[in-house]
């Protein structure tokens, strides 16, 4: 009996010593979780860059989203990581390498030809260049509508189809007013310029019709590349000729469209929103021609965001505006995942 009395405590002591020697990870306390959350707040925040060529990578965008979640955890009453989960972001779909290369070569070639025929000089001839660009840029939206209307006529309807058609109509209307502004500035006075623009638009319309009929994503990618070029062209033009533009008055058609018309159609093509609340609610107030071109440039960015979402997610507003990135070929997308 005495042996049993002393052997039981001895076993307990040995067992406790063995358990304490194990390397068991400790559960972080709420103070440690708050310290980690506070550390993440020191990460710099980013806004959408003016120059799309310098846009952050997809990995940067995902990190920013994670930081946003950590900030919300730190500001919550409990400050507990257990009560929050990271948002599940949709995976972007890359473009087939062959289709991507073909689209890129085609659009870059056409754009280079326009740049060669219409170099930016800071003179009235620049408006002829923009007239040609806008004539071609508005064509795809009519092509999309033509195919979608035909499919709808034959009974094909799917969720979100009517909304997409309304958005494409609003985009076409926006590009039409860009074109009218360039015409009011004298961009279409030369018959040769009209011939170049209208011939290119005619050929491009039927090309987009064929592509969109069999591969919507590839057709949207063509316009994504065009809008990317358009944004950067206007951005460079504004930077290099700001003083000259600020000395010119606002065309009446621009004032009518951006200030007096019903904003219903304008709001329709601004589909990609920002959780930060810095959406482009209204166009910039017009005081000079410089303000007109700022609005046109920002319109092109809205089109680019919508088209990028359609290419990568088949949804016009799939991700937040801060996460929109240019479409990459499939191999490049796979390497990021």
Automatic annotation (TrEMBL):
Residues 1-23 form the signal peptide. GO terms for cellular component: mitochondrion. Transmembrane segments: none annotated. InterPro entries: AOX. One of its GO terms (molecular function) is alternative oxidase activity. Keywords: Signal. This is Alternative oxidase-domain containing protein. The lineage of its organism: Eukaryota, Sar, Stramenopiles, Ochrophyta, Bacillariophyta.
